[in-house]
Specification:
By secondary structure, this protein is α/β, with parallel strands linked by helices. The protein is 36% helix and 21% strand. The strands form 2 sheets. Strands 6, 7, 8, 9, 10, 11 and 12 form a 7-stranded mixed sheet that branches. A 5-stranded parallel sheet has the order 3-2-1-4-5.
Length: 348
């Protein structure tokens, strides 16, 4: 006699989970106790834009994080279209036909649109999971974050910052941190400073830029001077800004085989006291092969010649080929946020 196949009890939960927090994890753990398989229905970016007007963490990142949680068996991304009027997960429930649909502490049978669908497919609904109410909220987290950022910005706006670089990306990062930097380019001859070690090279260049800019500052009573330099290291080779189209093409082809490491060194000087500190941050970026036609099109824009390594990972022609970034994205862009804050604090 053949053994009868035992049907698994499928439990489903849904939400935006942006950003994911400890309350979500605890809800997943509690939900899993009701069955054998836990499926998380994850609302996509279109849903979040319609619901909250902002996406803090892109859907693929949210999906990857949730999939890494031990109690989660599957993650299903919703197919909400741009400016959707249907904010429910009814379509996903119809397709999955779970045995149980679990809801968190802020949901009731009176305020969710999935009730008729659950009744139709014979899905039991369970509410108030998560220790008797909502212990954390993504909206609360973001609200606290925005409040703290506002306080930091108000504080930073009163600090005089001089950026020894004409890079619009570095200026943009400082502005994002709440600073209003004055730009004074160094205009040094970078080719005169050579080291085989990328950290020594970028530190030497950043220090030379800082020294050159310091001489141009008339009022040295107060303020903070920031200078930086970056190279890309790929397959053991130091890549600076490409000299010509041939070199730019070689750089971009290389990234299909090897990850690119951005080595960024920063020098920060308290202009009034003369105190100087410096540091280096390294990030790594993996890219899929970029088609020749796209490489040709990207080179024709001249953008590769503005960047160490010959690429801007956020440029539309390039961004879709970025597979993964390890480290700070601001570091890849030319100015590591965390390192900058640390160095500024140490010279105040």
């Amino acid at each position: 006699m053949k053994n009868k196949r035992i049907k698994k009890t499928i439990v489903a939960v849904s939400g935006g989970f942006d950003p994911i927090h400890v309350g979500h994890v605890r809800m997943f753990q509690e939900a899993k106790k009701f069955g054998d398989e836990l499926v998380v229905i994850l609302n996509n970016d279109n849903w979040l834009e319609k619901k909250k007007g902002i996406v803090f963490m892109p859907e693929e990142q949210r999906k990857e994080l949730i999939e890494a949680i031990k109690c989660v068996d599957r993650v299903v991304l919703t197919k909400h279209k741009k400016n959707t009027t249907d904010m429910s997960v009814c379509a996903e429930l119809k397709a999955l036909k779970p045995d149980i649909f679990v809801n968190g502490g802020d949901m009731t049978k009176n305020n969710i649109p999935e009730v008729p669908v659950c009744e139709k497919i014979g899905c039991e609904m369970i509410f108030n999971i998560g220790s008797g109410g909502k212990m954390q909220s993504s909206s609360w987290l973001l609200s606290d974050y925005m409040k703290k950022m506002s306080e930091i910005k108000e504080k930073n706006e009163n600090l005089k910052i001089i950026l020894g670089s004409q890079s619009p990306w570095r200026k943009k990062i400082l502005e994002k941190m709440g600073y209003d930097p004055e730009v004074i380019p160094s205009y040094i001859d970078e080719k005169k400073i050579r080291f085989k070690d990328p950290i020594k090279l970028t530190l030497a260049l950043a220090k030379a830029k800082a020294d050159a800019v310091l001489l141009k500052i008339e009022n040295r009573n107060s303020g903070i001077l920031i200078a930086s330099d970056q190279v890309v290291v790929c397959n053991g080779k130091i890549l600076e800004k490409p000299n010509d189209e041939k070199e730019a093409r070689e750089f971009l082809k290389m990234y299909a085989k090897y990850p690119a490491e951005t080595v960024t060194s920063v020098v920060v000087i308290n202009i009034g006291s003369g105190k100087k500190v410096y540091g280096t941050d390294i990030a790594k970026i993996w890219m899929d092969p970029i088609p020749r036609s796209i490489i040709d099109q990207y080179i024709s824009t001249k953008d590769p010649f503005l960047h160490a390594g010959g690429f801007d990972y956020e440029y539309p022609l390039v961004s879709s080929y970025v597979r993964r970034i390890e480290g700070e994205t601001d570091s890849v862009s030319g100015l590591p946020y965390i390192l900058i804050e640390k160095l500024i604090r140490s010279v105040k």
